[in-house]
Amino acid sequence: MPKTLSQSEILQLVLRISIASVVSYYSLKWMFDRLDPTYKSKKKARDKAEHQIKRLGGSEGLELNPATLNDHELVIASHLVVPDDITVSWDDIAGLDGVIEELRESVVLPIRHRHLLQNSQLWEAPKGVLLHGPPGCGKTLIAKATAKEGGMRFINLDVAILTDKWYGESQKLASAVFTLASKLQPCIVFIDEIESFLRSRNVQDHEATAMMKTQFMMLWDGLSTKAGSTVIVMGATNRPQDLDKAIMRRMPAQFHVGLPTEEQRLKIFRLVLSTETFSDDVDLNRIAKLTHGFSGSDIRELCRNASVFRIRNYMRNGSGNQTPSPNGTEPLPPISMDNLLSSFNKMKESRMHTGLLVTDNSVD
Ligand SMILES: Nc1ncnc2c1ncn2[C@@H]1O[C@H](COP(=O)(O)OP(=O)(O)OP(=O)(O)O)[C@@H](O)[C@H]1O
């Protein structure tokens, strides 16, 4: 006759089975984690995310415990930029006063003064903003400055992480973007090259990609209907024509950030050189005229090169050797017109070789 177990024996057995299950679960989890080739980068992202959120808690009193975030939210949070780290403000952008003024009125003021008109749905910031135009003309700069001026947290979303190769991960990450942004609000989710993952849907789309896009839009709509939500998706693109029409509709505020005109280039030159000393012979009007087709980023590069030319001349002694100037105590000479022109000619030449020289006169 089989022996019946006493109550304490049954309890012991249950306890042993429970302990064995827990140990097996964690051992297997540990093993699978390490088998995942992205384990190390995920861990690094998690550590970075925790660090950034703790900093937000310190400087802005954000009450968010990183331990309450799920793995996917932590991956997204690793792209969080803390306002203290945003060094850009409106003052660092030249020649784009019109765009700045509109963003100030439509995004920054409603967010900064949201307590004033809590019940007005008309004075709400748009849930989507699109900045479009050629590379290097200040789209990222504008997005960061808007976050800074609006006192908003900034998630610089890298679209590559949303296209995770593991089935189902993309959707979870897309959902994490919005749940995290809501916890961090007021918050801007910035997506550079937004057309690369929200391009017009077509039949060749992988099923998982199509589902991720649909889910992204549903979550975005969820934000729009949530009263008082201060999460803004800000997209930047060089190819607005490639964007899905449904996405376009979700970004009612759209701004063209084009190649600067001669007048705008002059303003950018003045701004970039405002911290430098330059000689009396520098004619900024002339250099602004010459640099037709240059972006703001090109102008910065031109000035940086001019500064390199200046230092190179300074380091050369009279015989032209690459040796420091006598006893190295002479003050650094100011940037000269010659330095700027040498830099301009160098850039023009390299652009001719790479075919990047703009010959379209419409921007001026
Ligand atoms: N209007 C501007 N005023 C001052 N600096 C500018 C301006 N436009 C561009 N720059 C300079 O060029 C750099 C690059 O600009 P930014 O990254 O904002 O361009 P972008 O339009 O986002 O380009 P991309 O499409 O390549 O991301 C800036 O960090 C800044 O130094």
Automatic annotation (TrEMBL):
GO terms for cellular component: mitochondrial outer membrane. It comes from the Eukaryota. It is found in: Mitochondrion outer membrane. It is a single-pass membrane protein. Belongs to the AAA ATPase family. This is Outer mitochondrial transmembrane helix translocase. SUPFAM superfamilies: P-loop containing nucleoside triphosphate hydrolases. One of its GO terms (molecular function) is ATP binding. InterPro entries: AAA+_ATPase, AAA_lid_3, ATPase_AAA_core, ATPase_AAA_CS, Mito_OM_Translocase_MSP1, P-loop_NTPase. The keyword Chloroplast does not apply. Residues 125-263 form the AAA+ ATPase domain.
